[in-house]
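Hi there, hope your week has been kind to you so far. No rush at all, and the record is pasted right below.
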Amino acid sequence: MSRSNKILFVCIALITILACNVPAGQTPTVPPDFVSTITAQAQLLQQPPSNQSADLSTPLPPSIPVVFTDTPAFTPTITLTSTSSTPTVTVSADTNCRSGPGKEYDNLGALLKGETAELVGKNTGTAYWIIKNPDRDGICWLWGKYATVNGNTDGLKEVAIPPTPTPSMPGAVKGLSADKICFFNGINYDLAGSIHWEDISNEDGYNVYANGGLFNVTAKDVTTSAIPKLQINAGGSISMSVEAFNSAGKSPKRSVDIVCP
């Protein structure tokens, strides 16, 4: 039962009770129009509240749909930095470092066994490495025969071979000495053996003389020559001399006297 019907029922019940309690002999007064009153109250109960619009025929505005979307997952930004490794070189034997790939170039220093130098370039065709000069400012060319490279060399630039310097006259040889063999044959001595000397940097070869006459010519970098096989008297000697040469000229001679016994 609705609330309005309940109120109407209660009002009718009160009217009935009051009508039954009117005293005898009294003229009942005209009862108030309870029915109209109850009807009016019922109509008021059926009206919408005052804070709502009575015009129910006005359509409600369309509802705005709510769309739920997934929140994208947080992706941290990771910046990767590469650790550059500078390639280096060591040598298993002391190696000269020059202004170019060969002994015709000036000697600018040396990389000694156990030392480490930084690589700055390469020349693949000549098997030379270009390094920071360990003895002075600048760079120099290191022969790769005794070299051990550490690190990645892919990024090293190829360095062009510099022009060959105009040669200067070679210097005199140093350290000339003889390894002689004097064999006494009963009358005199049979002489044999060899001489040797230190190599110099800008030679094309060496002339070897015996008692002033040209005896032998060695190639570049060859620093030994045989002693002529001859017989000399006891106390006799032979003088052997060596000079270096190149396109610019000849060096002063250096000599060694060989005496038997």
In short: The chain has three domains: 3-46, 88-150, 177-259. The chain has a mean pLDDT of 82.
